[in-house]
Amino acid sequence: MSNSLKPSLNYQLPVSHLLLALAIVAVWGTNFVVIKISLESFPPFLFAALRFVFAFLPAVFFLPRPKVSWVNLCVYGLAVGVGQFGILYFAIDGNISPGLASLVVQTQVFFTIGFAMLFAKEQLKLYQAVAVAIAMTGLGIIAVHTDATTTFLGLALVVFAGFSWGVANTASRRAGAINMLSYVVWASAFAIPPLLLISWIFEGGWDSMYVSLTSAPTGAWLGVLWQSWGNTLFGYGAWAWLLSKHPAAAVAPAPLLVPIFGMGSAAFFLSEPLPLWKILAAGIVILGLMVNLFWPYWKTQR
Question: What is the mean pLDDT of residues 113-117?
């Protein structure tokens, strides 16, 4: 662990800021239930397009364009919009249960490590390799328990969504020190056209899109706004604010709770079963994430 992070090892967040961090991961985790419910009214790629329409508008009129290239914004927008959320919504729409999706998509951590090795010439450390192996064991348990609610295709699609998230993380890292909320809002412009095009081609054309838009109940539209404003504007905005106020090491562990909220809320609101194998797989994947995040700290305490 670098010397710059050592002072943060025993750092404690104020209670109000800790509660804010918990609120953020609760929004991100329970969002998978919202996705599943909203997909009853919108086809997945149209739903994803609407998410980014309302993330872009009207916020773009109040946030200056971040000082990054248009290419960087485009890569991030396409990776997050089409590769991550478009594919994730498609997977949850009948191919994987939302609780498991909230867990499997965390593979983005390991894809991010891989891209750092490829583009930033970072070397894979032994503890990172161990962390990947542990997490892959958990994914293997999920793969051998596919059924009507979670197919192998669904598992592969969510892993691809994690891959796309890793691409997006790499793009944002190359963007440097920027206002992350402004970055996400402006990049959303590049997600909207391809998502609408995919919806038009594969989800029934303009007539089907029109029927979905005009017949969707209020609850479905609230789900769209929850995606756009709750996850994007509040989630990213509040997270960026916390990172600006505290050492990264003090707040970085919080997203480990996202699968806990995801699987717990799916069990509570959607009656998604939690058999022993699923709990075991979740524990193993989260253990892999914890090894990757905390090993440098554990090593310094030996």
Answer: 82
Instruction: Find out whether 242 and 17 touch, Cβ atoms under 8 Å.
Output: yes
What's the confidence (pLDDT) of residue 131?
A: 84
pLDDT of 186 reads 96
User: Residue 281: which residues within 8 A CB-CB, separation 6 or more?
Assistant: 103, 138, 139, 141, 142, 145
CA distances from 208 to 15, 201, 211, 212 (A): 48, 11, 5, 6
End-to-end distance of the chain based on CA atoms, in angstroms? 13
| Residue ranges covered by each domain of the chain | 6-300
In DSSP notation, 196-224 reads: HHHHHHHTTHHHHHHHHHHH--HHHHHHH
CB within 8 Å of 114: residues ≥ 6 apart: 166
Contact call for residues 92 and 36 (beta carbons, < 8 A): yes
Rounded distance, CA 151 to CA 93, Å? 11
What is the Cα–Cα distance from 230 to 86, expressed in whole angstroms? 18
Cα gap 219→33, rounded to integer Å: 13
296 CB-contact burial (10 Å; exposed 0-12 / middle 13-18 / buried 19+): middle
Contact 163, 111 (CB under 8 A): yes
From residue 108, how far is each of 12, 45, 48, 103, 226 by CA, in Å? 27, 21, 19, 10, 22
Task: Provide DSSP, 86-135.
Answer: IHHHHHHTTTS-HHHHHHHGGGHHHHHHHHHHHHS-PPPPHHHHHHHHHH
Which run of H or E residues covers position 278?
helix 276-300
Which pLDDT tens digit goes with each residue over 24-46?
Answer: 989 989 999 999 999 999 999 99
Q: Are 100 and 262 in contact (CB under 8 A)?
A: no
